[in-house]
Amino acid sequence: MKHNVELRDHPAELRKFRLRLGISAGFVVIFFMLLYARFYYLQVAQQDHYHTLAEANRISILPIVPNRGLIYDRNGKVLAQNYSAYALEIVPSKVADIESTIDELATIIEITPTDRQRFKKLMKESKRFKSLPLRNRLTDVEIATFATNRYRFPGVEIKARVFRQYPEKEMVSHVIGYISRINDRDLEQLEQNEELNNYRGSQYIGKIGIEQSYEKQLHGITGFEEVETDAAGRSIRVLSRTPPVSGNNLILSLDLGLQDAAEKAFGDRRGALVALDPNNGEVLAFVSKPGYDNNLFIGGIDQENWNLLNNSIDRPLNNRALRGVYPPGSTFKPFMALAALELGKRTAEYSINDPGYFSLPGVDRRYRDWKPGGHGRVNLHKSLVVSCDTYYYGLANDLGIDNIHSFIGQFGLGKKTGIDIEGEVSGLLPSAEWKMKQFKQKWYAGDTISVAIGQGYNLTTPLQLAFATMIIANNGKAYLPRLVKQIQNSQTGTIEEIPPKLLKKLKLKPHNLEVVKNALVDVTRPGGTAAKAAINAAYTFAGKTGTSQVIGIKQGERYNEKSINERHRDHAMFIAYAPAEDPKIALAVLIENTGTGGSTAAPVARQVFDYFLLGQQPEATIAQFSEAVDNHEHEHL
Amino acid sequence: MIEIKKIWHYFVRYIDGFLLIGIVALMSVGLTVLYSATGGNISKVSHQAINISIALVVMWMVANIPLQQIKRLALPMYMMGLALLIGVALFGEISNGARRWLDIGITKIQPSELMKVAIPLMMAWYFDKHEITLRLRDYLGATILLMLPVFLILKQPDLGTAILIATSGFYVLFLAGLSWRIIIGLIAIAAGSFPILWSTMHDYQRQRIMTLLDPSQDPLGAGYHTIQSSIAIGSGGVIGKGWQNGTQTQLDFLPEQSTDFIFAVFSEEFGLIGNTLLLLLYLIVIGRCLVITANASTQFTRLIAGSITLTFFTYIFVNMGMVSGILPVVGVPLPLISYGGTSMVTMLLGFGILMSIQTHPKLIKT
Questions:
Q1: Distance between CA atoms of residues A560 and B202, nearest Å
Q2: Are A601 and A289 in contact (CB under 8 A)?
Q3: Residue B285 vs residues A247, B27, B309: alpha-carbon distances, Å
Q4: All domains of chain A, ordered by start, with CATH?
Q5: Is the pLDDT reported for residue B29 higher than 50?
Q6: Dihedrals φ, ψ of A315, to 5°?
Q7: β strands within A19-155, DSSP E
Q8: Measuring CA to CA, which residue among A270, A82, A226, A221 is closest to residue A165?
Q9: A154 falls in which pLDDT band (50, 70, 90)?
Q10: Each residue's pLDDT tens digit, A244-288
């Protein structure tokens, strides 16, 4: 029965089945063609596209950070260097509880409260996926301890890093500046300058000083490694490598020995000193006291140290040489004297009778000389040697503010010098036009009188004064002051000299210059305001003392050093060059709140000269001073 | 000598040589690609070789059973499968958020796999029984037989398997002569109900469907597989990157490269030329199966052979379609090539049936 059923086979039904089977076969072929079309599209039409995607999948480009260029002084002493060390780093985004992780790390590796503070500050400033250092300079023992405990700390790693170090710390911090971690503002700046690519992988950038202004030279060119990586991001092999090009080394014109001598001469006093080579504008010494330890800033400064530096009454972070503005005081007089001669308002022979004060015609007000009773007969020479104020009151009135402004402006006072570090301020050399613009007031004749002796609206930086002094010393040549003397190519070792840049040559009559310069030499001779500082000097030097007022003294009052707050006492100033007949160094010294230039600032200049010209240490110069005082006392006996 | 010949003859008398060569050729391709996909993992390749051996033994055994015997198994197999599916729904083990496995003490089984064979058998048996008078209600009855297990599998949930089993059942209906009007009507109803269905769906469900259709919407999640496999295939180009040189494969960008996505490995390393040869090889095997189907002598054997053949094709199409990014990702292995024992055994069981149909004396009308 069963077989019967199975044996029944209608030809019509079979035909129908085979038709359906044929249709199915047709579908199979059509669908296979559809697949084939898709394969063709992917593998032929879009092959390039997918090839690119596949390559992008497997190849990642890792930056290799170049070594930062080193910084040396003119004699090859290291001012900024690199060292490799291991750092304990944390990627915040990979750690659930940072606080407890650090606590736990502290049980195996020493982590000071300062480290914690600095790390917290870094965390606030950085993106969460960035690796941030918790501890630098791990010891071998610490590295081994961490390695065995590593599994406990996901997101924490030991990394080999190159660190910057400034061996001279405070002594040259205002020149060298520092590098620190790249922040969002730096990134913006780099993007604007289209330098972002070169900073992929870089952690640090110069923030201030030479480190900042020569960033391009120092940073170098980032290298790249093409690495094949798998889906988990593990490197499989290196496909190609473009080595980084180290940054170039800088050789400064700064003489570290001279800088050290100047520091010693300052002792604990605050102030600034800038010494230039009058033959080319090279900066030989650049002191701003107090300095700060620039190493603190490299990894990000901790709050405690920052507060200490930032809130200190001594303002150690303030670069006084570059950014401190002070009335030039009597150091302004040589330029006034030159103006008088050059503009024909005075002759060398012309003299006045100094009663100890000056009054404008028809006005009661008396402008006092520093010396009560006056200096008697005073010509131009004497006016500089004894620093007679009265002479210049009258002179200023004759010159007028506009002449003063345009003539003395040539010496760079009240203008940025263009030195090769950033942040310079311009100070102020007043003019009638300036006053109108600033205060909407006309210029009064009385304003000119205080400008004459470097007070009033006058504001200059120690750098500007050194620059102006250099121009007198070299008979009118305004060289651009610069800190970097040579750039050494890190690859070839070849040294590129940076040629001196003569900004302009002032047209000054040699005779007039000679009159003023002779007077400046006599300032350092017996009878001059800086005579004591020049006692027993083995060379002649020229200079001009100055006193820069911190607070105004009212009409009818006297300045009494002892009765006023120490910080309100006058600043002592001295500009000088040596040797007088063939100047090799020109400088400006400012010492804050120490009184007259002759007694405190000029001896510092002398010590610097002695070191520079004779190789004599400040201690020896100071010994000469006291010897001279002894001899003097013997004479009296 | 004669003895050996006799034994050999006894051994191969129910084997279709043509089909066997095609199958073995595809399996060899599979092992070769697997070696590359596993990064030269010999133990995994050996394991697959064992799977293949077991599957070949199963095929040989099935090929030796006359269809009349197999036919008797249709109803019990179906009932058992259904019972197991209900068992899964009630006591099944949950893994990966789906309830698919049943622990029967000795081992864990996946009843839906059994259903892949049981459904066409049952439906073919059903149509064979009602052969003389096929009316609409017979098709309706067959549809109910199909939809019961499909519904249970859909609930597990295992959309991919449910669709494939439903498809294999549909092939039986189609080949049994389901009227064109009903087929077109069903398609129209499905198309018409979609907008209504869409409007009742939650946002996340719509999102899932959108991701299925456009993987680039979720490149790291659901779309990751398709994007990476498209890159693998496309970057292979015309001649491919060479065996064991596919970067997408060797560097692990390609997911599930030894199982569902093994075709992308093949495609990346052997290119369009390899794909063409592979499609042709599959076409030859399918062609042979169609010939066997066309020559089958009874309604039962015709329907079962046709359903097995077209299901085999469907697996190939759905797998290649999803790997190359024209179909949504559903877990379907590439027949005879993907790593895994279960699907290999199921496939060869089907080929065993086809061989049995071809090689046993046909009961043609006399």
A1: 89
A2: no
A3: 68, 12, 9
A4: 61-95+102-138+155-252 (3.90.1310.10), 256-636 (3.40.710.10)
A5: yes
A6: 45, 65
A7: 59-64, 71-72, 78-90, 132-135
A8: A82
A9: confident
A10: 999 999 999 999 999 999 999 999 999 999 999 999 999 999 999
The minimum CA-CA distance between A187 and chain B, rounded to whole Å, is 29
The helix (run of H) or strand (run of E) holding residue A5 is: helix A2-7
Tokens 């002179």 belong to residue = A395
CB atoms within 10 A of CB B332: 24
Contact by Cβ (8 Å): A588, A285: no
Among the residues of A378-530, which ranges form H helices?
A: 380-385, 389-399, 401-409, 432-439, 445-452, 462-473, 510-523
Instruction: Tell me which chain B residues have a C-beta less than 8 angstroms from the C-beta of A42.
Output: 230, 233-234, 324-325
B235–A32: do the CB atoms touch at under 8 Å?
no
User: How distant is the alpha carbon of residue B141 from its chain centre?
Assistant: 24
Considering only CB atoms, which chain B residues are within 8 Å of A31? 313, 317
> Do the beta carbons of residue A482 and residue A253 sit within 8 Å?
yes
CA dist., res. B324 & res. B160, Å (int): 17
Phi–psi pair at A99, nearest 5 degrees: -55, -50
Whether A100 is catalytic: no
- Could you give the 3-state DSSP secondary structure of residue A69? coil
pLDDT one-digit tens code per residue, A102-153: 998 999 888 988 888 888 888 887 777 778 888 888 888 998 998 888 888 8
Tell me which of B231, B303, B360, B364 to substitute to probe the interface with A (most A C-beta atoms closer than 10 Å): B231
Look up residue A372 and give its amino acid: P
Residues of A in contact with B324 (CB under 8 A): 35, 38-39, 42
| Helix (H) or strand (E) segment spanning residue B101 | strand B98-103
Average pLDDT, chain A: 88
- Cα A537 to Cα A129, A284, A520, A545, A613: the distances in Å are 63, 21, 15, 17, 11
Whether A28 sits inside 8 A of B286 (CB atoms) is yes
**Interface touch B283/A28, C-beta < 8 Å:** yes
> Which residues does chain A have within 8 Å of residue B171's beta carbon, measured at their own beta carbons?
24
Beta carbons of B272 and B238 less than 8 angstroms apart: yes
Alpha helix (H) residue ranges in chain B: 2-12, 17-37, 42-64, 67-91, 111-129, 136-155, 159-175, 180-200, 203-213, 224-236, 247-250, 262-295, 299-323, 341-359
Please list, in sequence order, all residues whose beta carbon lies within 8 angstroms of the beta carbon of residue A80, skipping any fewer than 6 positions away: A70, A71, A164, A165, A166, A176, A210, A211
Other C-beta atoms closer than 10 Å to the C-beta of A239 total 12
Is A185 exposed, middle or buried, given 0-12, 13-18 or 19+ CB atoms closer than 10 A? exposed
